[in-house]
Amino acid sequence: MEDKTPIISFSKADIVNGEATVIYGLDLDVYAGDFVYIVGKVGTGKTSIIKTMIAENPLTNGEGRVCGYELNGIRDKDIPYLRRKMGVVFQDFQLLMDRTVEENLLFVLRATGWKSEDEMSRRITYVLEAVGMERKAHKMPHQLSGGEQQRIAIARSLLNDPAVIIADEPTGNLDNETADGIMKLLTGINKEKGTAIVMVTHNRQIFETYPGRIMVCKDESCTELCEDNFDLEQTV
Known about the structure:
The protein is of the alpha/beta class. The protein contains 7 helices and 10 strands. Strands 6-7-8-3-9-10 form a 6-stranded mixed β-sheet, sandwiched between helices. Helix 4 (117-130) packs across helix 5 (146-158) and helix 5 packs parallel to helix 6 (176-193). The chain is globular, with a radius of gyration of 18 Å.
């Protein structure tokens, strides 16, 4: 029987940025295989939702559950374990510039409890092959293009076989052709592995080309787009 428990679930959740509430009453369920865009103009709370999902921002009003962890009052010591269950991809790649691609990935595996050198080596080979970067293991990040660095960041997000990848403007620093390659990679992971994707973007062309569910942030709310509740032209 198929498990229909959501990977991410918010109910009447208030999303904060610092001390200010930026979104009131968020309702959102994300299931395995979903591809969910969070869109909206600058300052409407898109990234604050992402930060709440990874327990960087606190959730004090409403309910939130991510990868089996209740966000309300989550203990500091549990946050690293929550984050191990998801993959996170940032706009600016956030690679360690003083070590090779392989060493970047080893660092994450060791930090998340892997011990066997053979198993770590096999996992690194697997994720690099998954993103088409198997020949770049011994390169330094500065030797890679922006698109290649983002592919490595996506490989890093796959290391612990996450149920969901959370991507905050992953194509924001890339040209259109490179961004298209990254989107093909993410949608392929989504379709082939059933990995849920939650992606913040301001690029309308992306979510028109690669369809998914669309959550629109506007006027201190975030609501799923349907034909009768939002004019996307006025929102993005």
